[in-house]
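User: My advisor asked me to double-check a structure prediction for PEP-CTERM sorting domain-containing protein before group meeting. I don't want to rely on an old file, so could you generate it fresh from this sequence?
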Amino acid sequence: MKRLLITLAATTAFTASSQAALIAFGDFSGDARFANGNSLAFSSANQGWEAKNFTWGSGSSTTQTFSNEQATVGSNYGRGVASAFSPIAGQTGTDNFQLSFDWTAPDSAVGDSLSVTYQILGFKINEGATPDAADKFFNAINGRDYKPGNLGGLATWTNLLDGSSGSNTSATAFGTFTGTAGVLGTAAIDLNLGGVNMEDFDYIAVKFNAGVDGSEVVSGGILDNVAINVPEPSVAVLSALGALGLIRRRRR
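Assistant: Sure, here is a fresh prediction for PEP-CTERM sorting domain-containing protein from the sequence you gave:
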């Protein structure tokens, strides 16, 4: 199994643009499905988040009202959240997309408790096929494995971290973001669509887990502001480009 490691909050040449966010309920506000299950099924698509020992707001076991607009790591083993959604029509292209999110490690965190792992897959359903409600995007969301589902054998997936693809349920690449105890950090990860146009995917599925490899971690970590964005050049980059343009003009 390939594993990608990304450490805390390296600044990049781009800043995320909010105008192209593709994840619904990414700031954990509004009403959405909340179930303390251990898989992400086809019936959950475009319904919000499925959770395993992550909590937010208050409500029943099936529908949760997000009152604090963030997801907090619970006190039990195997903590994760996952969501599947349809790309917004018109979001074309094969590159320049980023997964971004905020992660605040618990105040008392050390070791694996400082980290959150993530996995993001694009799914293309076979022509003419309709998955059953119970068919899986992710076979488990509790961090014990990083195996994609294949929607009952009716879809192929592309891992948007490394561009690999398949139709099996073998473990595939995930990323790790390591934070600092009690400090909000922001991740911005360039995606690799494997040459597939974003709007050609039927669904995008994303999963987060506290800790690494399903390890026991301290409760209280906070996940927030999950989005897929098309990054815009930062002010610094634009200024540099402007200066370059002036130099070229003077040389003429």
